[in-house]
Design brief:
Layout (H helix, E strand, L loop, with lengths): L2 H38 L6 H13 L2 E2 H5 L10 H9 L3 E5 L7 E5 L1 H24 L2 H15 L3 H10 L3
Antiparallel strand pairs: 1-3, 2-3
Helix pairs in contact: 1-5, 2-5, 6-7
């Protein structure tokens, strides 16, 4: 085999490997989302809705912009998800006391009742991951995924929510 052919073969193998990696990441996200959706179905919540509730539970009252900087599941603005949660009576919108144009979001008592189910769903998915990856493998994978997401909106949301590593 000539050097030129070996280089083409190496390039083709590298491209195939990257393609597989890309699809593995997408497939893992899809399967995790399906698992979480199944666990959340009894509460009538989607993973994106559950994440909004969880972030509001963790952080307390937030503006829509602040919430948008912390969530990962929903692409773009979280306003569509928040609208649904407001209509369901799970999130409250209140104008700011200083600037009435700023809208603050908070959980309603009905949402607080659902947080235990959201937490159980998240813990159920965590338990599956614990069966598949030991703590060192989890840390390695998290480090590699943070590197892949570095400089992206999702990577920045992860860093704001969980801190730097």
């Amino acid at each position: 085999m000539t050097r030129r052919n070996a280089t083409k073969a190496d390039t083709a193998a590298e491209e195939r490997s990257l393609s597989e990696l890309r699809h593995l990441i997408l497939a893992a996200q899809r399967e995790g989302n399906r698992w979480l959706a199944d666990e959340l179905r009894p509460a009538g919540l989607t993973p994106s809705q559950a994440e909004v509730l969880a972030v509001l539970a963790e952080q307390g009252e937030l503006t829509l912009a602040q919430l948008g900087r912390l969530i990962v599941c929903e692409t773009g603005s979280p306003s569509r998800v928040v609208d649904i949660l407001v209509k369901r009576g799970l999130v409250r919108r209140e104008p700011g006391t200083i600037d009435r144009r700023v809208i603050h979001l908070s959980l309603t008592p009905e949402a607080c009742d659902l947080l235990e189910l959201v937490s159980k769903a998240e813990h159920s998915l965590d338990a599956v991951m614990l069966q598949m990856l030991d703590p060192e493998e989890q840390m390695t994978l998290a480090t590699l995924l943070r590197r892949i997401l570095s400089g992206t909106g999702s990577g920045e949301a992860i860093q704001r929510r969980y801190g730097p590593r």
